[in-house]
Each structure stands twice: as structure tokens, then as C-alpha cells.
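If you are new to this repository, start here. Below is one unmodified record pulled from the training split, so you can see the exact layout before writing a loader.
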Amino acid sequence: MKIMKKRIAFISEHASPLATLGGVDSGGQNVYVAELPKQLVKLGYNVDIFTRKGYRFKGIATVFSKGQFFDEVIAFYRGVAGSKHTIKHIVSVNVHRVLEITSPAYDTGLSEEEVKQRWTTYWSEALQAFHHGGS
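And here is the target side for that same chain:
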């Protein structure tokens, strides 16, 4: 009888294990998403990491802490959005280029529906094997 390794679907709705640390949208959660699966593999698990699709933006950022633009944005968050948080700085980014970042699962050329079907089948078979003592 073939003994299957235990499978774990590691899902992160926010952080990517491929993000460059110190870059935009990266930090401690990215380290966690990258390192925990490595440790689980060392313990004998098969780990599949699923992250959201994302985008890489290239542009020039300007930080505002006073002035008309700052005052208008603060007025919006206080009035329309109802925010009561202290806002000390506002970052405005003039975006020059946007590139889609996708999980390696999308690098195969399959459509999104085909990728979903592939993973649905994969995890359904794993669950069935688990329930029938194949784990």
C-alpha cells in the first residue's frame, strides 16, 4: 500500500512568500508565510501555498503631512468615511506602470477556471484518501 504524505493547503489572503522584504506590501506576515511551510516540509508534510493575485506598481510616491491636499484627504476621512483615527501622513503614488503578480499555479498557461478545477480535484482526492486511511 502506498502511504501518502499528509497534505496542507496553506492559504494567505494577503502576504506572498515571494515578496521582496522591505518592499511595498511586505513585512512580517510575508516571512511567516515563507518560513512556516518550509518547517512543515521538514516535518514530512506536502505543503501547497495559495496566495491572492496581486499587482506590482511602479511610480513616484509623495508623502504629505500638511497642506491643501492633506487637509482635503483628512476632511474626507473624517466626514464621508467617518474615521476617528489619527492620521499623520498621507502617501500619494503617481503610478507609471502596473504588473500583475500571480501564484506559480497561474504560470502554466491554464485559465483561472482550469486552475480552480485542478486544485479542487487535487484536494478532493487528498481528502478521500485521508478518509480511507491512505494518509
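Two things worth knowing about this chain: The mean pLDDT is 75. The beta strands are 7-12, 46-51, 54-64, 90-101.
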